[in-house]
Amino acid sequence: MTSLTEKRAARTQPETRTIRGKVHLREHLMGWLFVGPFGVVFLAFLIAPLAYALYLSLFQKKLIGGTSFVLFDNYVKAFTDPSFLSGAWFVIRFSLVSIPVQIIIALAMALILDSVTTLFARFSRLMIFLPYAIPTVIGAVMWGFLYSRGFGPLTDIFGLFGATAPDFLGSDLIFYGLLNVVTWQWAGYYMIILYAALQGVDPTLYEAARMDGAGRWQIATRIKIPLIAPALILILVFSLIGTLQFFNEPQILRYLAAGTIGSDFTPNMYAYQQAFSLANFNYGSAISFALGGIVFICVYAFLFFTRKRRSFL
Amino acid sequence: MTDHSSLRAGARRPQRYLPMQILLGFLVIYFLVPFWWVIVNSSKDAPGLFGGGNTLWFTDQIDYLGNLRQLFTYDGGIYLRWILNSTLYAIAGGVGATVLAVMAGYGFAKYRFAARRFSFAVVLGALMVPATALVIPTFIMFSRLGLTNTVWAVILPSLLNPFGVYLMHVYARDAVPDELLDAARVDGAGELRTFFQIALPLMRPAVVTVLLLSAVASWNNYFLPLAMLSDNRLFPVTVGLGLWQGIASANNAGTTSLWSLIILGSLVSVIPLIIAFFSLQRHWRGGLSVGGLR
């Protein structure tokens, strides 16, 4: 069989085109053989549902007259629906606060763990990462207990100082209550990714910088952080996608925070309620699709503004 | 990598980092507090839980065994079923997604086939599709096919892992030299044999990473099974505990014992994952750096 190296050589020599053609056919087949099974799943569970959701979102079901084609009426309805708009505004606001908080904490932890090599540092690394192994639902259940007035420790702790405990499940502080749950859950995971990237940096760079008189702070900000910028962009994009789809934590905490978290607290919760509680699949699909549009716009805007850096795409 | 670490260690004076170690200590406490609360409070019975007292310390009555027996016998042992369901979904979804991702990543990295660039760009674009946006249309498609409220409704959509394909692509591109594959081909190995005997062993760290990430994603999944399943005997443990949480909150007075079941249930449900992570950490750490680095 003709080898791939020959094929590559053939690319620069047009006179051996016949060999190249034969190899190509075989390569096409093998390539599609390897990619094909994933391709089938991709078409069945991503492309088809997306197309179907788009289709569904263009119809409306009425009590009288049945289902009718309404084009973008559902989207017009969504973008004038206070429930959807307040949910969307909440997740955007929450992203703007929670993502920087998580990334800064994760970056600080990764930089510390990259420069401290004691046994305790290694132990801390594992413990900080531990929440990633916990399902977000269980994380929310656990923090819900810690927040609760009945059996959480906050009442005792604040009681020691004669103060009333803050109610993280009340409407004033729920933002911070959720911020804490999310940070606890994800900061360790981001830390591990950044830490792995830092470990891949060639330490002779630090030596050279030290010779030139750079301090530890300068090494961190001028060498380490720029070199792991691709990893930072990667986790920023993933946390943005995840946060805009916020569902699990508020859905679980709403049992404990009755009255604070409504069924339209985030767009995803609202879509779930429309589709599965009210059987309004057309409007639910439209909300999901509108949310997907918001995610796309936010991610592309973000990638556009950071494209001068080497992006992971 | 070994050169790096010895170089690092040599250039280091650990005592200067004491403030940072103290800071790490506080961070560790923060990250462990919820675990500690759950460990302490799953030892208590209902009066111990609600009787006031220190919520961060044990009462005189430490009754793990009694609580465990209650947990595993409540409602005909439904909790054990949930754990087994979660295990099934995590293994089937994780293994399936990994096999597909490894093959596709290798295919994208090592074969120049028609429409390769376009297809790969589509897969990367799919990273940005909110997974939950797919749940509603998938639910309707499955309900037409009579697949809702079956294990397939949870397993089949979990097979999709575009990020796994991306990770495997990057790793295969860098860790599997073309020359080695060509040498195997010259020696007469077929494409499949080359893949299994040459490429796969070289990709192992990334394979373990993708396996772990997809298994965890399936184990943690909540939205998909919540939407797809109505029979609580098919629930994974996340949806099951969510159900209990809802019941317990709805009639707080009547079902106080359910709270201690939820607390112990959350503790028991995280133990398998913690063990998996710690025992496999040497294998997956190498693969995780890939996604961030390049």
From TrEMBL, chain B:
Transmembrane segments: 21-39, 88-108, 120-145, 151-172, 202-224, 258-280
UniProt topology in membrane: Multi-pass membrane protein
Principal location class: membrane
Alphabetically ordered keywords of this record: Cell membrane, Membrane, Transmembrane, Transmembrane helix, Transport
Annotated Gene3D superfamilies: MetI-like (1.10.3720.10)
A Pfam family the protein falls into: BPD_transp_1
Record domain ABC transmembrane type-1: where: 83-280
Keyword Cell membrane: yes
Lineage: superkingdom: Bacteria
Subcellular location: Cell membrane
Family: Belongs to the binding-protein-dependent transport system permease family.
Protein name: Carbohydrate ABC transporter permease
UniProt organism field: Micromonospora parva
